[in-house]
Amino acid sequence: MTVPLLPRQRRLTDSTRQGTTLVIVVVVLTVLLMFGALGMDFTRMYAFSGQLQTAADAAAMSAVIERRNNSTASSAVSRAADMLAWNRIDGINLARMTSSDVTFGRWDFSPEVFTTTTWDQASAVRVRLTYDAPWSLARIFGVTSRTLTRTSTAGLGSLSSSTCVKPWALPYSHLKLSLGYTATDTTSLTAEDIVDLASNRTEVRFSLGDKGKNGGMATIGAKGSPSPVYATMLGPLQYRDGSAGTPNGSASDYHSNIVAECGATEKVSLGDQLQLFDSDMELTTRDAFDKKCKQVIDKKDKKDDTDIACPSQLLLPVWSILNTSGSGRRSITVRYLAVFELTGYHHKKGFTGYFSALQEAPVGGGGLIGQPGPVSMPLLVR
What are phi and psi of 86, to 5 degrees? Predict the structure, then answer.
């Protein structure tokens, strides 16, 4: 037999149930808010770590550039310290660094080992930064901050051969025009010239539109001074030591070498001869760049006027002498390998960027392959 609840008993039961539910909701919301706040704390720590690494990278690069410029050890430390003000943590606070946190040494690219040396013998700089990152909610547990440490190593690199060379032969004379030299000036570029090109980011545009007049893919121009840039076959026609190579004249391989970061099957070295294409490679080049830079082209509407960001680093051969054989076969001799920082691409106009480094072939034929030239390139190595 079921005994019915009296009205007063029913009201008390409902009220108790509602009060219990309210307590549970408050507890759950409190726990959720605590976890959310802790999540925000850890997210801030992650952001602080990234900002600290950026500051360490900037400090190391600035210090190794001082080494490249034959400055002093104290100047390198000072330049590294200057970067901390430009790369503040959370936009306000400075990372900590003392002179003992800046270490000079040599970097072995294989097997990637840093060895401490004196400043005069150094080719790399390692910088260590620390920062006391503040906690927010974790303070209720008695923890006020966490000490973060980040290290960065920058070294001076040089190269004389690579499978990452792009299949375009760039005229040495145009680099001089970009720096304000005249076409008839016989002065050779210096390390300071290349530093100027890199630091000022002197913009150069490769204009796709030569229509085979030079048997190439484009013209390169700055301030109305275009120069021919030839499409080349990879690998070499002739190696630096005089032995014969096997250039590949396939349009599909040419296309692949543009799209891939390192697409050549054979190394291209300073002093090698590269054979030029005799056919117009403009459309193949344009199609490869559309793919490399992920440009969406409306096939029905060719009026594409959009500049898109396409950050990448290109390694280009630079020539100063054009060779022609008795059969009419044309080739160039690689005088430099140039590092070109690609910044943007336009389907109709071509691509833009600036030169950041050059590696020159040893003079006189007695130099070793891999011997550093007069221009070294600062690189973040770890």
Answer: -85, -10
Tokens 């549970």 correspond to 24
Label each residue of the chain as H, E or C. Answer: CCCCCCHHHHHHHHHHHHHHHHHHHHHHHHHHHHHHHHHHHHHHHHHHHHHHHHHHHHHHHHHHHHHHCCCCHHHHHHHHHHHHHHCCECCCECCECCHHHEEEEEEECCCCEEEECCHHHCCEEEEEEEEEEECCHHHHHCCCEEEEEEEEEEEEECCCEECCECCEEEEHHHHHHHCCCCCCCCCCCCHHHHHHHHHHCCCEEEECCCCCCCCCCEEEECCCCCEEEEEECECCCECCCCCECCCECCHHHHHHHHHCCCCCCCCEECCCEEEECCCCCHHHHHHHHHHHCCCCCCCCCCCCCCEEEEEEEEEEEEEEEEEECCCCCEEEEEEEEEEEEEEEEECCCEEEEEEEEEEECCHHHCCCCCCCCCCCEEEECC
Backbone angles phi, psi at 223, to 5 degrees: 55, 40
Neighbouring CB atoms inside 10 A of 121's CB total 10
Query: Could you report the per-residue pLDDT of 6-56, keeping only the tens digit for each?
Result: 555 555 455 555 567 766 766 666 666 665 556 677 788 888 888 898 899
Name which residue leads in pLDDT, 70 or 315: 315
Phi-psi region of 142 (alpha: psi -120 to 50; beta: other; left: phi over 0): left
**Rg of the chain in Å (alpha carbons):** 30
**How far apart are alpha carbons 53 and 180 in whole angstroms?**
38
290: left (phi over 0), alpha (psi -120 to 50) or beta: alpha
Tokens representing 278 are: 């005799």
